Amino acid sequence: MSSKLLFPEDFILMGFTKYPWLDLPLFFALLISYMFTLLGNMALILVSQLDSQLQSPLYFFLTDLSCLDLCFATTTNITYIGCMAQAYIFHWLGCTECVLLGVMALDRCVAVCRPLRYSVIMDHKHCRRLSGTAWLVGLANSLLQSTLTVQLPLCGNQELDHFFCELPGLIKMACVDTTINEATLAVVATFLIMGPLSMILLSYGCIAQAAFHTCSSHLLVVSLFYGPGIYIYMQPSGDSPQDLTKALTLFYCVITPMANPFIYTLRNKDVKGALRRLLRSAILSKRI
User: Kind of pairing, strands 12-13 and 159-160?
Assistant: First the structure.
């Protein structure tokens, strides 16, 4: 039985079609959140690149995270040519963020526990290597999981009970035994979620007493991202209500990217100072 390629014209994205009264509120909520996502992440990227005082590894990784969140939110708000293209990109970005959050925790651990050697250990070359590893691991996992999903036959099934093309929803559309796909997804997701999460908890466990104020923002972002991911991916398929799964997915792919730059900015004096200097320079340049 041959597989059927999925393109937007081939099937219907259901979303919350059982609750039509949610259409208009959801439209405006998603539009506003997407605009804040663009504004917040672009501002953080801009000040990190233009301000000479924000050239440390911390802001290198924050810039990387903001770029990732911009792509993440855009992937789930703008329709791509085909459903599979969206699935590949969405899964790639999600896996990359899992690994990148772990790398950022390692950076904080080195900064607090080894401050005298921090600039040597976390030099620019090493930061780029860690960032590249996160992106490559996410890409490799996306190629594996999405390719396995593409090959599943649909047997005429055209209704995808989701907002966009995410792998668990696509697997449920198949008309054959998907045990291998579900097991592979669960095993790899466990590794990619619990591996970085364990590294984060271990890193912050070592420095919690000495510098909790430097970690609280990152821990908040971690809880917002990993909490829904653990619930959605690390349980047997079909055990959770689909509406709850959709709501949690919407939370971590829309709300989290919007919240990340504000969480980091509002609790970071350096970033707030850089924003003020950037605005002051812009105002003075217009006067001149």
Answer: parallel
Helix (H) or strand (E) holding 217: helix 216-233
Pick from 91, 223, 240: which is nearest to 164 by CA? 91
Residue 1 counted as domain residue: no
Query: In this structure, what token pair is assigned to residue 267?
Result: 């609790």
Beta-bridge partners for 12: 159
pLDDT in tens, 180-238: 888 888 888 888 888 888 888 888 887 776 666 666 677 777 777 787 777 777 766 65
Which CATH number fits the domain that encloses residue 160?
1.20.1070.10
In a domain, 2, yes or no: no
* Residue whose structure tokens are 């804040």: 36
Evaluate whether 73 touches 59 at the Cβ level (below 8 Å).
no
Q: What pLDDT sits at residue 79? A: 47
Best CA proximity match to 66, nearest among 189, 221, 226, 224: 221
Q: Residue 87: CB partners within 8 Å, gap ≥ 6?
A: 146, 149, 165, 166, 167, 170
Domain hosting 200: range is 8-287
40 found inside a domain: yes
| Burial category of 135 from C-beta neighbours within 10 Å (exposed 0-12, middle 13-18, buried 19 and up) | middle
Prediction pTM value: 0.67
* Gap between the Cα atoms of 23 and 251, Å rounded: 16
C-alpha span between 200 and 238 (Å, rounded): 30
Judging by beta carbons within 10 Å of its beta carbon (0-12, 13-18, 19+), is residue 237 exposed, middle or buried?
A: middle
> How many distinct structural domains can be found in the chain?
1
Predicted local distance difference test score (pLDDT) of residue 134? 92
DSSP letter for each residue of 43-82: HHHHHHHH-TT--SHHHHHHHHHHHHHHHHHHHHHS--SS
Question: 256: helix, coil or strand?
Answer: helix
Beta bridge partners of 13: 160
